[in-house]
Amino acid sequence: MVFTVDFLDHPITWSLTGTVDDPGWTAESHRDYRPTLYAVTARGMTETAPDAERCTAALQDLREALATHPAVATTRIERRRSGLRFAEQPVLAIEADRNDAVRDVARFVERRGPPGQHPFRTFDVDFSPEFRFCLDQDVSPTRPGRRHSSDSTSLGRQRPMRTSRNSGSTKRRPLHRPRVRIGQQRHGLSRPAIPLGRPLRRSRTGYTPTTRTFSRSSALPSSRCRHGSPAKTTWTSD
C-alpha cells in the first residue's frame, strides 16, 4: 500500500508492509517514468462536438513537429474529454524525458502556428511532480492506519499542568509562559522581560552631568520671545 511519493530526480514510492503490530516499509524507485502532458486543438476548445478527422489531422502535423524536439520522448493520439462541456475528442499525449522539460514542451506547442494565432492548447502542465505521477500511474497514496490504544501517548500531546500555590488546594491549572504588555498588545516570552522604559546603560563612577546654556539670539538673531528679551535654552548632556 503506497502511502507517500517523493520526487527527487525521479519518483520514489513508499509502501507499507507487514501488519499493524509489526509494521514495515519499502521504497521503490521509478527511473523509467516520463511525465505526460496533453495537447488539443483550439477547435476542440471552442466547439462542443468538434470534427474528429480535422482534429486528428492537425494533431498529426503537431506530432511530426515534436518528433525532433530534444525533450520529447514519445507521442501518441488518444481520445479524451478536454472539459465537462466537451465530448471525447482526439488529443495528443506527449511524454517528456524529464519533469523540468514539461513547461518548455508546452510553450513550444502553444506557440505553433501563424503569429497571433494559437491553434493548440496544452493540459496537465502546472501539476506538482508528485501529483502528476499519481495521475499518470493511477496511484492513490493512503494514510497508514494506527493501532487504537488507551495510553496517554495515543491521545495526542497534552498540555502540562501544575498544582496551585495554595497548599490546601488541589486545583490544577495549565502552565503558561510569562507575558509582558507593550501598549495594548501582549507578547509571550520564554523568560522574564526587562522592564520597559529603562534602557540599559553602563555606569560611569564619578561622572557629573554637564550643563551648557545657549542664547537663542546668538543662533537666531531675528527671533525674540514674547517680552522682547532673547530666549535662552538650557541643554543638559548626561
Structure at a glance:
The protein is of the alpha+beta class and 238 residues long.
CATH fold group of the domain at 36-137: Alpha-Beta Plaits
- Envelope shape: elongated
Secondary-structure content class: alpha+beta
Question: What is the element string, with H for helices and E for strands?
Answer: EEEEHHEEHEHEEEEEHE
Radius of gyration: 37 Å
Adjacency order of strands in the biggest sheet: 5-6-4-7
Instruction: Return residue spans where pLDDT drops below 50 for at least 5 consecutive residues.
Output: 148-164, 184-207, 222-227
Nearest-integer average pLDDT: 70
Strand content: 25-35%
Write the CATH architecture name of the domain at 36-137.
2-Layer Sandwich
CA distance, first residue to last residue: 74 Å
Beta strand count = 13
Largest sheet: number of strands, sense, barrel closure: 4 strands, antiparallel
- Helix share bin: 10-25%
Number of helices: 5
CATH class of the domain at 36-137: Alpha Beta
What can you tell me about this protein's structure?
By secondary structure, the protein is an alpha+beta fold. It is 18% helix and 32% strand. Among the domains are: 1-32, no CATH class; 36-137, Alpha-Beta Plaits. The chain is built from 5 helices and 13 strands. The strands form 5 sheets. The protein has a 4-stranded antiparallel sheet with strand order 5-6-4-7. A 3-stranded antiparallel sheet has the order 1-2-3, covered by helices on one side. Residues 148-164, 184-207 and 222-227 have low confidence and may be disordered.
